[in-house]
User: Fold this.
Amino acid sequence: MDRTAKRITKLPTVLLATIALPTLASAQVRYEIVVPEVHGSQINLTQEQGNQINQAGETLLNRLATFAIWQEGASPRIVSAYSDFPGSLSRVSASSLNAYGQVIGSKTYRQKTGFGTFSTTIPFYWDAANGLVDLDELGNGGSATLTEINDHGLAIGTLQAEPLNPNGSIEAFTWSFEQGRLDIPALAETAGRSVTLPTALNADGTVAGLYQRYIGETNSYHERGFLYDPQNGSRDLATIDPSFFDEANHTARDLSDTGLVVGERGRQAYLYNLDTREGISIEPFAGEDAQAATRGYAVNNSGVVAGYGETRTDSGKTAYAPLLWSSATGSVNLYHALTHGDDRYLPPGLDRDDTLILPKSINDRGQISARLDSISNAAISYKREILLNPVLDFSWHEVRHTVRDGVRGMLYRHNKGPIPADSLPAEALGLDIVFYCSDDLANWTQLAHGTDGCQIHDDEICTEIFLPLDGCQFVQAGLAPAAASTL
Assistant:
């Protein structure tokens, strides 16, 4: 057995633990593509940052001088980016929203001087209580950005001290109101130039990112992944596990709170567990060439990875499809698991084979935020911020009045069957099916066995729920992260 096969049989324990959790019913999941709208308008100002979804399903959508805090089914909150900073605001880039409603990002201004007009970028912070706060002091006269904030209020960002110099350095730092700015040491420098790009930050304050490792000169380099924390400093991934990160080019694009890193080694995506020091390659879609590239951009705390993979069309052209990977499913082409066709999210005349869906983040509910771009040879130019939402495919096969132990009530029965080829088992995505009841179809309460006479029975054949008639009148099924649904 080769080294790759050994690693596959020894998957990170966090993944196996997630899949082993009990579920209430055999549930199947498909995905739907949602194109968010703010006041009836789709967002076509796509950016590398922004639209990163938090655990509650909230995301940030950037407009010209405002950004929106958006969640499906709720009214978006519009925030103005205008402030007293001297200059003409040209655009805002709200990048990250944590669980407590703290937002960070950057704004670009055009300023006039005696030498002409130039652009400068400054970071900002926003929350509902304090409003928008400019953090131009982080740039020290250069262009600075903030790109991600964790639930402890710690953020990561970059600084270009000489923004007009194409060969200038790009430095990285962490920041919070409590600690101020703390620089992340560069791992490589040539002729006074270094490039360090933080990409992710977890709850422990560990940073993942990319840097340029030069090959004799500044315009020739390998792209390398790194980790940083204040105790250990900056470390190339190859120093952590030289046998796994043995490619000249490797990346670190996301980092979960459970210590899972995702990125690429050469042409293949990977998932690596920092606690067990074990990793696995994320292979191409089934039926595709073994050399087809895969890319890993996001990972959640259950070890579910979002990215994209190369495919071949019937005419032999290279195309790209959104990829979802779990240890139970392997690499899944999400186009095969969609609830609807291309006409629901693409304009007439644009084929999905001429587009690229680039994931930005995936939360523990399995929701994926992404950017959809038409590729260079497409007949139509089209850019949108989108979401890929998991949808539970579940129905009651029988609903009837009955009597149990002298109590009149309603019996709900779901008959189990095989998971169709075009859907995914919920447990493979770190999700459980949960049940809610309501009297008014507006306020829902999660059902629990033994509470208020509720009886839930689950086996390999069916799921049954009995509710007394004096209880809730309506019952529906939903999805929840496995850890949350088994508390």
